[in-house]
């Protein structure tokens, strides 16, 4: 038993060895675990092993910091992990994970975003691999999770940078070409480069650069290439000829850059063809401008804020200042104080293109009248163009002198004054105005002429062979500045007077017919023939008009004389006719009355002698004889009144029409009250003979009362109004009226209309009214409807 309680030394040693081995194994495992943890920490990963059957996950490392949680807060369940995956990535991550579980794939790799509690997004990369049982289902799965947020940020940054570079490359307005330096073949080109070269992308990519366009200076291009390959950034202006023959000027820049670890040559191509063309044109235009500027006859000055910055030689000559003196001089120095006070200088802001007359005060003394055209230039400077108008002013003065000299003259006085002033102002030895002599119009007779400053005797000459025939034939002005006598040898007057220069213009009537010529001549050649021509042309129209006026005046005088003779004859005939009419009137009033009186007297004697002896028929015959004698007497009286209404002088005055009408109405109501209501309206006064106008109103109102008296409510309306310098009077009644078809007979003597039956009258009253109204320069008219009255209108001068 004692031996039984003793331990075997061998067993003790073995146990000790096992204990030492286990301890050593534990140390190795701990070291391995620590090393694994260090490796995970260094790699930034967390590993996991999932025992699917036991549904137990073993995590190696803390996932909490990858999910933005406090250390140890993540419990390690996959649903907890998936809950934090971004919604846009969750479905894809879950699908891949399930496919691996089901054996559709043995492993998977995903990258998904997780949302931290602070709302920020972080990227995690997950790798998983499954082990499957005999049934093909996963029994165990292991995996690794790594935070790749920084890598993703760098990738996104690199991608954005690449996108921006690509966008800039493609959209750059500068042509860009990328080549491999050694092969000189194009690997990339943007749209601007393709447009510049004039080729499509498939023609450019892979092509040798020298096949795309030919350098006109190949040596210069090679020198630039060598410098670029040596590390320099090079640039220069080169000319290239495209495949279609078009030549371009390009700013060519080049540099060697490293792309994907390989050196590439980047060329930038900026087309300056149009810019260079415009620069050359501008340079040429500047040169032309300078030539024109310097050669201009007008003075030209360019100023900035009133100070001269450029001036041409003509401006120097006009102002009296040398070119060097002009530069820097203020333009106010060009004018006197009086000129500046009368016409102040405008500021630069006020300057607009306009023309102004000024007087230049020259440096060396004296004034120079100028016309200034000034306006702003695009660069803010002001250009002033000065023109010497001395000659124009002198010509204007000359023109005004001639115009003033002839302005108030007519006829012969005008012709003499015109040639005198033309000869004096132009300095001509001879001047004349002549008219063609009708009817042949082959000769000219002068109306006025000046010879050597004095009025000469008028003369006549043939047109044929003279310079004047050319002026008339050409219907314009002819100028012979010298040698005119030799050109027209048949015109003896030219040679006789020693005339060398001739300027003449034709004169024409309004209907185009030739009237004559206006001519100035000189014994010496003239240099200002065109000016002489313009002067006589200015007054040629006035001279032609005066010739026409004089001819018309002569014709009027002739016509007046003829008319006076005719008037005298007609007056004599009228006086004879009046005398005959007075004799006729006397015969009517005296001789015709005697037989009527005799008939009436014998009729009365016959009635007295046969009282009681005659039968009823004889009495009736005697009454008819007596009645017709009376009617004949009345007709003779009416005829005399009509004759008197058209003769005798009018005694005109301003007649008060209303007072005249009221007086006539009083006369008509003397014997008996008026048979109608009379309404008198406004009656403006008129000019006329009161006695005759009283007769007009008496006849019209008497007729209106007579022909409206039979109605149930007779009414007469009288009114008047002014119209265009005349006064119109209206008499309206509501009587029997008349048919307008018979209106033409209304104002004829002894004519009575059918509706006048049963009314007394001789048919002479309206004829007298019409004659009196016409003698007063007026008119009369009537309108009516049978049974509805009549309206009479007549006018008189207001």
Structure description:
It is a single chain. With 798 residues, this protein is of the alpha+beta class. 43% of the residues lie in helices and 26% in strands. Helix 14 runs antiparallel to helix 18 (529-591), helix 20 runs parallel beside helix 23 and helix 21 (657-668) packs across helix 22 (690-708). The longest helix has 63 residues, at 529-591. The radius of gyration is 66 Å and the shape is elongated.
By secondary-structure content and strand pairing, the structural class works out as: alpha+beta
Q: Largest beta sheet, briefly?
A: 7 strands, antiparallel
How many DSSP-defined strands? 30
Strand residue content: 25-35%
Number of helices: 23
Spatial shape = elongated
Task: Report the mean per-residue pLDDT as an integer.
Answer: 82
Radius of gyration, rounded?
66 Å
What are the segments in which pLDDT stays under 50 over at least 5 consecutive residues? 1-5, 754-759
Termini Cα gap: 185 Å
Helicity level, as a percent range? 40-55%
Task: Itemize the secondary structure elements and their pairings.
Blueprint: H1 2-5, H2 9-43, E1 45-51, E2 56-60, H3 78-83, H4 87-101, E3 107-115, E4 121-132, E5 138-147, H5 149-171, E6 175-180, E7 185-189, H6 191-197, H7 201-204, E8 213-215, H8 218-229, E9 234-242, E10 247-259, E11 262-271, H9 273-295, E12 299-304, E13 307-311, H10 313-319, H11 323-326, H12 337-342, E14 354-361, E15 367-376, E16 382-388, H13 390-406, H14 411-426, E17 430-436, E18 443-451, E19 454-455, E20 460-462, H15 468-474, E21 477-480, H16 484-487, H17 492-496, E22 501-508, E23 514-522, H18 529-591, H19 593-609, H20 616-645, E24 653-655, H21 657-668, E25 677-680, E26 686-688, H22 690-708, E27 715-723, E28 726-733, H23 765-775, E29 780-784, E30 790-797
Parallel strand pairs: 25-27
Antiparallel strand pairs: 1-2, 1-5, 3-4, 4-5, 6-7, 6-11, 8-9, 9-10, 10-11, 12-13, 12-16, 14-15, 15-16, 17-18, 17-23, 18-19, 18-20, 21-22, 22-23, 24-26, 27-28, 28-30, 29-30
């Amino acid at each position: 038993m004692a031996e039984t309680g003793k331990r075997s030394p061998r067993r003790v040693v073995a146990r000790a060895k096992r204990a030492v081995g286990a301890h050593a194994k534990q140390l190795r495992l701990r070291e391995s675990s620590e090393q694994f943890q260090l490796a995970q920490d260094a790699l930034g990963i967390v590993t996991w092993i999932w025992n699917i059957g036991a549904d137990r996950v073993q995590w190696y490392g803390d996932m909490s910091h990858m999910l933005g949680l406090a250390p140890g807060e993540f419990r390690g369940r996959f649903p907890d992990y998936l809950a934090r995956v971004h919604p846009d990535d969750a479905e894809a991550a879950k699908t891949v994970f399930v496919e691996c579980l089901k054996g559709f794939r043995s492993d998977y790799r995903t990258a998904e975003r997780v949302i931290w509690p602070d709302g920020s997004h972080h990227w995690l990369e997950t790798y998983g691999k499954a082990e499957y049982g005999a049934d093909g289902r996963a029994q165990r799965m292991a995996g690794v999770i790594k935070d790749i947020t920084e890598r993703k940020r760098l990738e996104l940054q690199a991608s954005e940078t690449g996108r921006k570079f690509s966008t800039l490359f493609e959209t750059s307005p500068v042509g860009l070409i990328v080549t491999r330096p050694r092969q000189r073949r194009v690997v990339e080109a943007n749209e601007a480069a393709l447009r510049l070269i004039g080729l499509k992308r498939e023609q450019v990519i892979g092509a040798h650069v020298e096949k795309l366009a030919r350098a006109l200076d190949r040596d210069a291009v090679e020198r630039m290439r060598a410098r670029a390959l040596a590390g320099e950034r090079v640039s220069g202006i080169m000319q290239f000829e495209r495949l279609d023959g078009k030549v371009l000027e390009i700013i060519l820049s080049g540099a060697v850059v490293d792309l994907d670890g390989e050196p590439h040559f980047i060329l930038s191509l900026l087309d300056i063809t149009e810019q260079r063309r415009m620069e050359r044109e501008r340079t040429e235009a500047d040169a032309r401008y300078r030539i024109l500027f310097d050669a201009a006859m007008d003075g030209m000055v360019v100023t900035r804020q009133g100070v001269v910055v450029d001036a041409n030689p003509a401006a120097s000559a006009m102002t009296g200042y040398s070119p060097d003196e002009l530069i820097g001089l203020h333009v106010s120095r060009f004018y006197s104080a009086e000129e500046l006070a009368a016409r102040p200088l405008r500021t630069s802001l006020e300057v607009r293109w306009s023309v102004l007359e000024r007087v230049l005060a020259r440096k060396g003394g004296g004034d120079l009248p100028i016309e200034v055209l000034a306006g702003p230039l695009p660069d803010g400077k002001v250009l002033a163009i000065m023109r010497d108008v001395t000659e124009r002013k002198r010509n204007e003065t000359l023109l005004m002198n001639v115009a003033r000299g002839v302005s108030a003259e007519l006829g012969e006085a005008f012709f003499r004054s015109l040639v005198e002033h033309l000869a004096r102002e132009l300095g001509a030895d001879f001047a004349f105005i002549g008219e063609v002599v009708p009817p042949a119009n082959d000769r000219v007779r002068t109306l006025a002429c000046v010879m050597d400053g004095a009025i000469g005797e008028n003369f006549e000459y043939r047109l044929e062979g003279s310079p004047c025939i050319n002026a008339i034939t050409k219907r314009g002005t002819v100028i012979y500045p010298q040698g005119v006598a030799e050109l027209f040898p048949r015109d003896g007057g030219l040679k006789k007077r020693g005339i060398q220069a001739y300027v003449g213009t034709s004169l024409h009537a309004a209907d185009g017919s030739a009237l004559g010529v206006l001519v100035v001549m000189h014994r010496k050649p003239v240099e200002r023939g065109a000016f002489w021509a313009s002067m006589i042309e200015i007054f040629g129209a006035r001279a032609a008009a005066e010739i026409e006026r004089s001819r018309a005046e002569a014709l009027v005088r002739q016509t007046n004389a003829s008319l006076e003779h005719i008037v005298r004859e007609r007056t004599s005939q009228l006086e004879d006719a009046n005398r005959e009419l007075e004799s006729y009137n006397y015969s009517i009033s005296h001789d015709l009355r005697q037989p009527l009186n005799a008939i009436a007297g014998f009729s009365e004697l016959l009635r007295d002698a046969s009282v009681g002896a005659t039968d009823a028929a004889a009495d009736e015959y005697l009454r008819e004889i007596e009645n017709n004698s009376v009617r004949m007497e009345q007709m003779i009286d009416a005829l005399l009144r009509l004759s008197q209404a058209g003769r005798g002088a009018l005694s005109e005055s301003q007649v008060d029409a209303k007072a005249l009408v009221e007086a006539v109405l009083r006369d008509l109501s003397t014997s008996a009250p008026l048979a109608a209501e009379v309404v008198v309206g406004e009656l403006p006064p008129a000019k006329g003979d009161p006695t005759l106008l009283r007769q007009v109103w008496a006849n019209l109102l008497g007729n209106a009362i007579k022909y409206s008296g039979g109605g149930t409510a007779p009414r007469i309306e009288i009114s008047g109004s002014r119209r265009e310098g005349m006064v119109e009077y209206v008499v309206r009644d509501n009587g029997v009226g008349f048919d307008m078809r018979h209106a033409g007979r209304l104002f004829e003597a002894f004519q009575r209309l059918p509706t006048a039956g049963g009314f007394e009258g001789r048919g002479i009253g309206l004829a007298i009214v019409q004659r009196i109204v016409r003698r007063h320069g007026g008119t009369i008219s009537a309108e009516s409807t049978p049974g509805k009255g009549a309206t009479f209108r007549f006018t008189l001068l207001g």
